[in-house]
Amino acid sequence: MESHWFTSKNQFALNILVPLQYFIPLLVAYILPKNFGFGWAGAVPWALGLGFSGLLLWIYATFCLGKSLAVLPGSDVLVSRGIYRYIRHPMYIGITLTLFGLLFACGSVFGMIYLAVIVTPLNLFRVRREEAALLEQFGESYRNYQRQTWF
């Protein structure tokens, strides 16, 4: 019996469709007219700095996961090294900060709405699924890990 919450035949679609949800607002922000920093020129460097910080967090989290990185929840090993020692879902925080910073810097209303309505709920949905799969697989070890970490 397969323990994943999606069947293996859906994996290919999810490997393409889920990451695409992060790319769409950037593409639209690139194509549409821009109102940099929503008219606050001083906000652009701050927003880009926030986006860059999110990107670094995202990359570092990916590096810490190593071979445990997967689009679908579930893992053979409970990763608690690096940033995962403190935060359970740093990739989703990094993705959100990256998109927020870049979209705010571009002044993309569409992108900010997309982030709030599509990306953030998608990330929260994935967090719940991942936590359920990891609880099922690792039981009390994962509960202890949850108590010791943030989000």
Low-confidence stretches: none
Structural class: mainly alpha
Order of helices and strands: HHHHH
Overall body shape? elongated
Structure annotation, total helices? 5
Give the termini separation.
30 Å
Which topology of the domain at 51-151 does CATH recognise?
Four Helix Bundle (Hemerythrin (Met), subunit A)
CATH hierarchy class name of the domain at 51-151: Mainly Alpha
CATH architecture of the domain at 51-151: Up-down Bundle
Got a strand count?
0
Radius of gyration: 17 Å
Estimate percent helicity.
55-70%
Residue-averaged pLDDT, rounded? 87
Tell me what portion of residues adopts beta-strand conformation.
Answer: under 5%
For the biggest sheet, the summary is:
none
Q: Explain this structure to me?
A:
With 151 residues, the chain is mainly α. It has a domain at 51-151: Four Helix Bundle (Hemerythrin (Met), subunit A), CATH 1.20.120. It is 68% helix and 0% strand. It is built from five helices and no strands. The chain has helices spanning 8-31, 43-65, 90-106, 109-138, 140-148. α1 (8-31) packs antiparallel against α4. The longest helix has 30 residues, at 109-138. The radius of gyration is 17 Å and the shape is elongated. The two termini are 30 Å apart. The model has no long low-confidence stretch (mean pLDDT 87).
